[in-house]
Amino acid sequence: MRSERYIPYLLVLPSVIFLLFLFAWPLVEALLLSIRGSEGWTLEHFQRMAADLYFKDAVKYTVLLAVVVVPLQVILALCMAMLLGGISKGRDLFLYVWTIPLGISDLAAGIAWLAIFTERGYLNSFLQALGLIQEPRLWLSYETPAMLFLAVVAAEVWRATAIVLVILVAGLQLIPKEYNEAAEVFGATPWRRFWKVTLPLLMPSLQVALILRTILALEVFAVVVALGGRNLPVLAGEAYFWYNAYQNPGVAAAYSVLILGISVLATLLYLRLMRPRQEVAA
Amino acid sequence: MSTRTIYLALAVLLALWVVVPIFLIATLAFSDRASVFAWPKGILPQHFSLETISFFFGVAGVGKAIGNSLIVAGLTLLFAVLLGAPAGYALARYRFAGADAYRILILLTRAFPLAILAIPLAVRFINLGLYDTPLGVALVHTALALPFAVLVTSSLFLGIPRELEEAAWTLGCNRIQAFLKVVLPLALPGLAATAIFAFVISWNEVFAATLLTLRERTLPAFLLTALNDSPLPFRFAGGFFLIVPALVFIFVIRRYLFTLWGIANR
Amino acid sequence: MAGIRVENIVKLFGRVKALNGVSLEVRDQEFVVLLGPSGCGKTTLLRIIAGLEHAESGRVFIGDRDVTALPPRSRKIAMVFQNYAVFPHLTVFENIAFGLRMQKALPERLRAQVERAATLMHIENLLERYPAQLSGGQRQRVAVARALAVEPEVLLMDEPLSNLDALLRLEMRAELKRLLAESRTTTLYVTHDQVEAMSLADRIAVMNAGRVVQYDEPMKVYQEPADTFVGGFIGSPPMNFLRLPVEGSQARIQSLTLELPSSPPGKDVLLGVRPEDLEAHLEPQPQSFPARVLVVEPLGSHLLLTLAYEQQQLKVTVPPDFAAKSGQTLWLRPQPGRLRWLDPASGQSLTHARQA
């Protein structure tokens, strides 16, 4: 009978061992890889990374993408979630259609938007039909970083808003109806109810969505590669190129440590900014 | 126009925003080569044709890549459920010292960028003989899917009243019999959804799969590495083929979507 | 069939003592109710007997067998849960047959047992249905039938009626009483509902704060509560307790003096008297004391009066046609022979003091 005490540990143990081997250990390894050279400790990998031609752009575009894409996704998802509340008929159908991108990989999303932005793609065909252009224009080349950036933003917003939407809808379901009804009884307009009741109560879900999406946005890779190859350098892409093309795990690891560093920083920032939410809500 | 109509119009607009790119790539995948390169293009397919699709399947390595993807995703599904479900059960049924620490560990794993796992593992897997094998990729994909599996199965088992198990014990079952006869049949649909979700995570993953393979590419890894030197029809057909199973899976598990994402993110 | 005996059960939840050395004996074929407020440990005690929880110390016997170390499946018990715990993925037939299948009963015996149990509970026409298609009351019947089908040595029931609505609960209560009187299965039944306990039990074990405070026949528990807790918990409205000064071997209420059975330890004594054991009169009477009416509540079958005697409140029930108004003074005559005397310091009954 007493032996039952160890049952939960027995059940949890395999997954703990697995996670130690595939999370904790590689994490330490990555750190070591990035600071160990042929003769002892070194910052050589980080120096090589920082000196690389693509480095500055990679940092710039990665951070810029996260800063642009994540708020867009959250705002769009919030609108969708609120919109669902105003629809009675076909709510489930809309919810299903809107969450379809959940199953679509970043690579596939990149390819789908390639069909739109490519030289002989739908965007150029559309612009031609409007009479704005005569000949196909290049949007995804090295010379058009702004348009390439826009294409990546479109593909990312298209693909990953659904994740935020599901988190927010699940969060909304947890808010008891009575709060909103009470606010209504006291004469609050729908707009005020949203700001004063729904949004503050949704804050935990928003926080989760923001952190999760930011971490994932900082890892953006396949969408960018599918749309522009290396024309729009990003951090994860650089890590990939350094490992695969240049066969240099040290610099690749340095890039991965940098991504982790920015992720941790962003997470801490969110936690700090969103903590005093009583004051924000008041 | 009433607010209701405006809402509905907005909802339809957003639905179109989601559906149109899928429709466009499907159109391209089922057009002939000439229409893929045609300019300007119409929105509707011009000539229905299997030329592009059959060209895609005819490319050397595609069949093998699809096979590898299936093997990797299948292994991931198996590992994620076999490792995750017991842990989920423990979290749901027992209060034990370290349960909270374990929960935090699980949540933390989701905060790490994949690059930091894939690069050192690629290096290590060469020594271990796991590099360029479906098993190696499946292990990394399991690391991605396992946190989901644990959290989702834990909420799944929480939803099955403890008393059902206790009733089975009083009626003559030992713990294992009670689990097999009572808990498992009730958890089965949810477990299936968890498994499918793990499958989709693996099927879609490209970064680690590309780093960890050379010849034994999964489909996304194969597509990504072939992207720059392959013609557009190949890319579109490949992209479309990546999307289709994911669509089917999401349709199958849509009932569990909120358990899977909503609770897994708490 | 067998009795149950538990000895010195101690159960801790963290630092809280849920059970504080409980001993209890249930005779063969007896129907015992564990009664107490929530958190008193009654369900924990039942679950320890079932083997679903493990006590820090103490022993559990079923019949002559020491089952303390046995898992639930080896204890030859059956249990009915508060939320029924009917298996939703099995038909009613398979639910009732579950325990028999685990015993590897032969097909003929299995069918016969299931049908007998189902007929007893009047659900023989629902055997092919799934629990989702049943009402709460029907699920409850399935749960009881499932427990009876295995012919357990003892039947354990954890608040089995508390999830039913009031009318259904009344119906099921009578049915359970009939059923268990027929089957004569030793039963331990947990409830917080004192009416349920009174109506069903051969004996009631009243529990409070991890102890059994009184273990006796229902009418004894009602009329002769061992302490102020039992008197206050059982009966609706509860027993009145009046604090009175002691003079020698007598207690005094104004001009009225009452004999005490034994001399109390302190200067005061508590008089415990049920609301129906105070006879109310409009005029002064011998052997009575005055009290002022505060509230009159007509309850159909009777009037419930709340009165004040000096600073102390008491409740009295009177016939519905009794003309009482608030503010009025009534004369209350305690029924001799229905009075309980308790020690105000400990709350223990003076005659009962040795027990508990």
Detailed description of the structure:
The complex is a heterotrimer of chains A (282), B (266) and C (356). With 282 residues, chain A is mainly α. Chain A contains 13 helices and 2 strands. A two-stranded antiparallel sheet of chain A has the order 1-2. In chain A, strand 1 (36-37) and strand 2 (40-41) form a beta hairpin. Chain B is mainly α and 266 residues long. Chain B folds into 2 domains: 1-49, no CATH class; 60-263, Orthogonal Bundle (MetI-like fold). Chain B is 77% helix and 0% strand. Chain B is globular and about 70 Å long. In chain C, helix 2 (92-102) packs parallel to helix 4 and helix 3 crosses helix 4 (136-149). The model of chain C has no long low-confidence stretch (mean pLDDT 92). In chain C, strand 11 (240-247) and strand 12 form a beta hairpin. At the A-B interface, helix 1, helix 3, helix 4, helix 5 and helix 6 of A face helix 1, helix 4, helix 5, helix 6 and helix 7 of B. Chain B: Its main location: membrane.
Labels describing this entry:
heterotrimer; A: about 280 residues; mainly alpha; MetI-like fold; two-stranded antiparallel sheet; 13 helices; globular; B: mainly alpha; 2 domains
Helix content of chain B: over 70%
Mean pLDDT of chain B: 88
CATH topology of the largest domain in chain A: MetI-like fold
The gross shape of chain B turns out to be globular
Unreliable stretches of chain A (pLDDT < 50, length at least 5) are: 277-282
Greatest interface (CB-CB under 8 A), with counts per chain: A-B, 95 and 95 residues
The CATH class of the largest domain in chain A turns out to be: Mainly Alpha
Pfam family, one (chain B): BPD_transp_1
Transmembrane segments (chain B): 6-30, 69-92, 104-126, 138-158, 179-203, 232-253
Keywords (chain B): Cell membrane, Membrane, Transmembrane, Transmembrane helix, Transport
Membrane topology (chain B): Multi-pass membrane protein
Show the helix and strand layout.
The complex is a heterotrimer of chains A (282), B (266) and C (356).
Chain A: H1 7-35, E1 36-37, E2 40-41, H2 44-51, H3 55-86, H4 91-99, H5 106-117, H6 122-129, H7 145-174, H8 177-185, H9 190-218, H10 222-228, H11 235-244, H12 249-274, H13 277-281
Antiparallel strand pairs in A: 1-2
Helix pairs in contact in A: 1-12, 2-12, 3-7, 3-9, 5-7, 5-10, 7-9, 7-10, 8-9, 9-12, 11-12
Chain B: H1 3-29, H2 33-37, H3 51-58, H4 62-93, H5 99-109, H6 114-128, H7 134-158, H8 162-170, H9 175-204, H10 207-212, H11 219-226, H12 232-252, H13 257-263
Chain C: E1 4-13, E2 16-26, E3 31-35, H1 42-50, E4 57-62, E5 65-66, E6 77-80, H2 92-102, H3 107-120, H4 136-149, E7 154-158, H5 166-183, E8 186-191, H6 194-200, E9 203-208, E10 211-216, H7 218-223, H8 228-233, E11 240-247, E12 250-253, E13 256-259, E14 268-273, E15 278-281, E16 289-298, E17 303-309, E18 312-318, E19 329-334, E20 340-342
Parallel strand pairs in C: 3-8, 3-9, 6-7, 7-8
Antiparallel strand pairs in C: 1-2, 1-4, 4-5, 9-10, 11-12, 11-14, 12-13, 14-20, 15-19, 16-17, 16-19, 17-18
Helix pairs in contact in C: 2-3, 2-4, 3-4
